[in-house]
Hints:
By secondary structure, the chain is mainly β. The chain folds into two domains: 2-160 and 347-362, Exo-inulinase, domain 1 (Jelly Rolls), CATH 2.60.120; 164-343, Jelly Rolls, CATH 2.60.120. 7% of the residues lie in helices and 41% in strands. Strands 1, 2, 3, 4, 5, 6, 7, 8, 9, 10, 24 and 25 form a twelve-stranded mixed β-sheet that branches. Strands 11, 13, 14, 16, 19, 20, 21 and 23 form an eight-stranded antiparallel β-sheet that branches. Strands 12-15-22-17-18 form a five-stranded antiparallel β-sheet, with no helix packed on it. The chain is globular and about 65 Å long. The model is unreliable at 1-24 and 357-364 (pLDDT under 50).
Amino acid sequence: MKRTFILSIVCLLFLGTAFAEAESPAPEISLINSEMFGLTSTEKGVWKIESSSEKPVLTATATQPTIIRTTTQFGQFDVSIKYALSKGGKASLLLKTDPKGTWRRCFEISLLETESMDKMLCISASNDVINRDFKLGRGYIGVKLYQGTIRIESITVKPVLSQQLFNGKDLGNWKTYDVIDAGVNENGELTVKNGNGSLETAKSYGDFNLSLDVYVNGEDLNSGVFFRCIPGEKMNGYECQVHFGFLDSDRTKPKDCGTGGIFRRVDARKVIGNDKEWVNVYINAVGNHFAVWVNGEQVSDWTDTRKADPNPRRGLRLDPGTIQLQGHDATSDFKFRNIVIEEIPAREFVKPSLITPGRIDEKP
């Protein structure tokens, strides 16, 4: 037993080294929020948010296996979980689980018991380690509790994004549509003024992670990040809205869909961020499912159940399409930076799960 523990710690330190070396321009996003938004479980009522906690803590107690997972599939990423597990408890972090629900086909990291339920441990794994032995491509992220009690303070994901869509120098590989003034300022930021018009990427993308920072230089201004657009057609795609207005001093009441909402499909569940400050928007698109995080918190989770159609205005578009940045009207005045994307690889068939311990970092 003692020998097993020592070997585990060696593996943990290896995982930690790989995690520290991996750097991505994308910010960390959180998988836990006060409403368990973006999470699903077949065992209703088992997984809960502690109402007494200052920040959301996901909890569960079980005598038989229970799983909670994301509704979003991820491709390449680093991941970290901060948790406490009761004595005699058994649980695992599941990475890239099979979309068909075959939980054996995933990368499973065993979680160790903690000294107490008030002392959290942190386990991290890098994208390199996750993909070292099995290249799973894509899948959900989840937690499986076999028995005992678990408290999870955070699960954070840092997508690995390597393709720069904007070089900070010029508008190479971008096409301009209609009445729009676009350029690059002295700080290397992409500027979009006036409208109605847009900027379009030269390349098309199907399933992807996209991260960018946006600055609204005004009040009550409207823009959007369009994706899977029909190439050569102005803003004919899905639209991730950019608008920070809300009604009745209530951020859960977006004025115009809300930043991170999918325009004309689903509103953001709350408005995060403000005009005249830099705000990060992260978009995940896989198949007919779309999810958006703003400043690391998930605000939309939508599945397009319409019949397939090459035109996204009429139905589900699965074909790759371009990315477009919108100048909505004559009042438009926006800045963009750190525009990075990564295509999400297809799911691959793999052998049953690889079980390995993760790195432990005790936090004060």
